[in-house]
Amino acid sequence: MYARRRRNYFLLMGGCVVLFVSAWAVVRLWSMPAAIVMCLVAMVIPPVAAMLANRRGPEDRWWDDPFGDPKSDEWWDELDGKKRY
User: Fold this and answer.
1) CB-based contacts of 50, cutoff 8 Å, min separation 6
2) CA–CA separation, 76 and 85 (whole Å)
3) How confident is the model over 16-71, as pLDDT tens digits?
4) How far apart are the first and last CA of the chain?
5) What is the distance between the alpha carbons of residues 44 and 84, in angstroms, rounded to a whole number?
6) Nearest CA to 64 among 52, 80, 51, 50?
7) CA 77, 82, 84 angle in degrees (round to 5)?
8) Burial class (CB in 10 A: 0-12, 13-18, 19+), 23
9) Exposed/middle/buried for 36, CB within 10 Å: 0-12, 13-18, 19+?
10) Which pLDDT does position 66 carry in this prediction?
11) N or C: which terminal CB in the chain sees fewer CB atoms within 10 Å?
């Protein structure tokens, strides 16, 4: 779960760096508006990458981690349709 989130985060941030560097190293020589648009897109990527990296998937059980109270844990397992034997 964490490996998937980390990989997605680094892919997005790598794309951000590539956009920013290529905009000002190469693209600005041909089209300044295109370089500015590329930088604006690169500016939006970091917050999106952080939100996606911290998003919980349906398989992540963070809301009902065992609290140490057997009755409470049993109740949550019953709600989830899981039985402890």
Assistant:
1) 9
2) 14
3) 999 999 999 999 999 999 999 999 999 999 999 999 888 876 666 666 566 677 77
4) 26
5) 45
6) 80
7) 80
8) buried
9) middle
10) 60
11) C
